[in-house]
Amino acid sequence: MVQLKEVEDELFTQEQPGPTLDDNDDDYYTDTDSEISDDDEADLSLEETLADRLTALRDVIPPKQRAALTNSLSTAASWMKSGLSWSGSALFVVSTSVLLFGVPFALANLDEMEHMEREREEKMRQGATDVLTPGVGSSLTSQQAKPAV
């Protein structure tokens, strides 16, 4: 069976150099939770930016993997730039084509619809005239249909 034995470090048993505190000596006491120490820590965290932290991570990643990562990111950026450029050109071609062909077609279609609407109104007006004066229209057509004697 294994038995554990505590071994004390001799540095902990020796008296450490520095000022000694007597029971009456309260002048040397420092508060570790004071506002001054908190302010110092806050200033240190505000001085460090995200770029500083990312730069510090550079040492963590090996150079070979860093080069591969840089290469893949630059390739992705190049593909993205090419894709956006191509899509911008395609959007320009499509919008120009719509303006050149679509607008005249829409105007012609609108003109044709107006013409059909005018013909429909004319037929309705003719039908209303026939309903209001039924004998006038039929007597004219019957006179024109009779041969002259």
Task: Break the fold down into its secondary structure elements and pairings.
Layout: H1 10-13, H2 35-47, H3 50-56, H4 63-132, H5 134-145
Structure description:
The protein is 71% helix and 0% strand. With 149 residues, the protein is an all-alpha fold.
In short:
Helices cover 71% and strands 0% of the residues. The chain is an all-alpha fold and 149 residues long.
List keywords for this structure.
149 residues, 5 helices
Rg, alpha carbons: 49 Å
| Helix-strand category | mainly alpha
- Oligomeric form of this entry? single chain
Helix fraction bin: over 70%
